Amino acid sequence: MEGGFLFSSSYDKTINVWSLQDFSHVQTLKGHEHKITAIVVVDNDNQSLCVSGDSGSGIFVWRVGTSLKQEPLNKWYETNDWIYRGVHCLAVSGTGYLYTGSRDKSIKAWSLEDYSLGCTMIGHKSTVSCLAVASGILYSGSWDGSIRSWWLTDHSPLSVLEDDAPGSIAPVLSISTEANFVVSSYENGCLKIWKDDVLVKSEKLQNASIYAVKLNGKWLYTGGMNKAINIQELLEDKSELEIRDVASISCDSIVTSILYWDEKLIVGLSNREIKVYDKGS
C-alpha cells in the first residue's frame, strides 16, 4: 500500500491496483511472463515504486502515481540455475536496498539507485520464504525451519532463531515484527513468538498451514488453510506471554495474505478475492 493505492498480485501474472478511498479498481499492470509470487511498495528518492517478483526469477519495478504507466520502470532477472529459479519474497529498508528471498537459499540486496546487486547473504539450507524489516534488522524465514537476522548496515549475520524441541522443525511461511517481537507461522499450523531473539511462546493453532500472520500492537491476526481469520490478543506480564482467543472470521477460501491499515483488515484469498473488514465491525 502506498500513495493512496492498494496493490494485489496473482498467479495470473498481473498486478491489480485499487484505490484506498473506495477500493475501486484503478488499473491492471501486465508484463510478467511467470506467476507473481511477491510484491512490495517503497518510497525511493521522493517517488513511490511498486516492486514485484515472479517464479521465473524476474524482478519488475513500477512507478506509483496518478498516471500509473503500464510499462515497468525497470526489470531484471536473478541469474540462477533453472532448478533454483524463483523469487519467493521481497522486502525494502530505509537504507536504499531491495531484498529478495529465493529458491536458491539466498537473500540478495539490490541497490534501489541503479538496481545493481550489492551482496548475497548465505546461511539458510532451503528456500527463503519470507522477509521482514524492523529496527535496523532484516529477518529471513526459510523452509529449513529457521529464522535468521541480518544487520541492515553491512548485511552481516546477527542471529539464528530456532526451536530445538523434538519434532518442531517445519517450513516458515510468514513473519511479522512489532517492537522487539517476531511472530512466525509454519506449514504444520504452529505459531511461534520470539522476544529479543528468545522463544517465549510456541503454540499449535490448527492442523494445517498458516500462510499469513500480522502483529499489530497487542493484536495478532492469522490465516491459512483452515479458511478463517483468527484474531487473538497477546497478554504479557513479567514472567510469561499468553495468547487469548478473541474472534474467528470464516472465509470462502484459503487465506493467503493479511494487511492492517487505517483500522481495517485487508485479507487476500486463494479464490482471487480481497476482503476488507473494519476493526469495529
From TrEMBL:
Xref: InterPro entries: WD40/YVTN_repeat-like_dom_sf (IPR015943), WD40_PAC1 (IPR020472), WD40_repeat_dom_sf (IPR036322), WD40_rpt (IPR001680), WDR86-like (IPR044715)
Key words, A-Z: Repeat, WD repeat
Pfam families (alphabetical): WD40
Gene3D superfamilies found in the cross-reference section: YVTN repeat-like/Quinoprotein amine dehydrogenase (2.130.10.10)
Annotated signal peptide: none
Intervals holding WD repeats: 1-28, 121-150
Protein's name according to its UniProt entry: Myosin heavy chain kinase B
Organism: Aegilops tauschii subsp. strangulata (Goatgrass)
Lineage: Eukaryota, Viridiplantae, Streptophyta, Embryophyta, Tracheophyta
